[in-house]
Amino acid sequence: MLAPVLPEIGQQTGTGPGVAGALVACFGLGQLVGYPLAGLLAQRRGASWTLRASLVLLLAGDAAFVLGDGLAVWFPARGVQGLGAAGLWIGVTFAILEHWPDQAYQRVSGALAAYSAGAIVGPALGAANGIRAPFVLHALLTLAAFLPVLALGAAEARARFGADRSVLRTRAFAVSAAGIVLIALTVGTIDGPLPLHLSGRLGQTGIAALYVLTAVVIAAGALFAGRVRPTTALVVAAVLVPAGVGFVGATDSVAPWIAGLAVAGAGLGLGEAGALGILLAAVSRERIVTAWVILAQMWAAGYLVGPAGAGLVAEALGYAVVGAVPLVGSLLVAYTLRSGSPRDQD
Fold first, then answer.
1. Cα–Cα distance measured from residue 299 to residue 306, given in angstroms and rounded to the nearest whole number
2. CA–CA distance from 60 to each of 118, 122, 136, 274 (Å)?
3. Number of domains in the chain
4. Is the C-alpha dihedral spanning 23, 24, 28, 30 positive or negative?
């Protein structure tokens, strides 16, 4: 939702892609802190409590954007929303592990497609003129989200989630982590400095429409990922993602931007589902907590580094080079896939 609003924030504050990237990165910082806290809450109180607390934090961030004014308010507000988003992801995935442990990969793929559906709505909200209006609309949707969360019943048997650090030494975890870093770097690049590049040809509504289209493709990629092997999905993503982002940054007209973001979007949907599926296939839910939380923190770290790094790259070398940021993640995926360890357990 924030991406179409970034050019307006830049105009009002007189800032460029570096500040835009840092504002997006604040969300990742909030997530980095929020994931272990949410994991602890989910273990002690269950998924439902985690989801409710997360929605409250999202509402608090919305209120700061609606009632506050200026970067001094907006930066911490994005951090608070990052905390809420972290809890939302942990709550959703732990609910899946509680209720449908035998269908975890397929259900998580479906959840990722649902996240992508939300990513369709998000840019559409961002098309509302100005800075405050999109956050008012987001707050209304967040209030509506309380209804299904409140209706979420308890699992037939309470799941016992345990911490197991030995999972972190497996090849499955290494490959999954590399895949998540690739996805986070890419999303951070697309959400951070790239909208300022697109604003050369598109207004706030046009950028929102382009991001809606991208989200549709991401959703399709996530759904398709459930039909192929997780490793296959991740390998294809490692090729598509940097190619798509690089093409967008290197071109200056709308048609290639549409094509490039469609390619990157397909890779994002495939890659995130594939990365998570590799871990789910190798680790039982009783052992997954530590690995799952750390994997989520690595996503947050990538989303922290991605927009900030891509913003600095864009300012120093131009938008044509921003594809190098997700390329780092693709190289990491290739390295972990080729490098086995004597302690591999998958």
1. 10
2. 19, 17, 11, 33
3. 1
4. positive
346 within a domain of the structure (yes/no):
no
Burial status of residue 303 (CB atoms within 10 A of its CB: 0-12, 13-18, 19 or more): buried
> What is the per-residue pLDDT for 318?
94
Q: Distances from the Cα of 168 to the Cαs of 73, 83, 204, 279, 287, in angstroms? A: 38, 24, 43, 10, 11
- Residue 345 located in a structural domain: no
pLDDT score of 271: 95
Under a CB-based contact definition with an 8 Å cutoff, are residues 106 and 233 in contact?
Answer: no
Residue stretches of the chain with pLDDT short of 50: 341-346
Contact call for residues 322 and 21 (beta carbons, < 8 A): no
Q: What local confidence, expressed as pLDDT, does residue 25 receive?
A: 82
- pLDDT, position 105: 66
Return the CATH number at 193.
Answer: 1.20.1250.20
Q: How far apart are CA 91 and CA 164, in angstroms?
A: 19
- 26 and 78 Cβ atoms separated by less than 8 Å: yes
Residue 343: inside a domain: no
Instruction: Confirm whether 227 is domain-assigned.
Output: yes
Q: Rounded distance, CA 184 to CA 51, Å? A: 22
Q: What is the DSSP letter of 41?
A: H
Residue ranges of alpha helices (H) inside the chain are 6-13, 17-45, 47-67, 71-99, 104-126, 132-151, 171-191, 194-198, 204-225, 230-250, 254-282, 289-317, 324-338
Alpha-carbon distance 276 to 299, whole Å?
11
- CA triple 4-213-231, angle to 5 deg: 110
pLDDT of residue 234: 96
Range of the domain at 206: 3-338
Name the 3-class secondary structure at 299. helix
pLDDT in tens, 61-108: 999 999 998 999 999 999 999 999 999 988 888 888 777 777 766 777
Report residue 63 as tokens. Answer: 């209120």
The residues near 107 (Cβ < 8 Å, ≥ 6 apart) are 96, 100
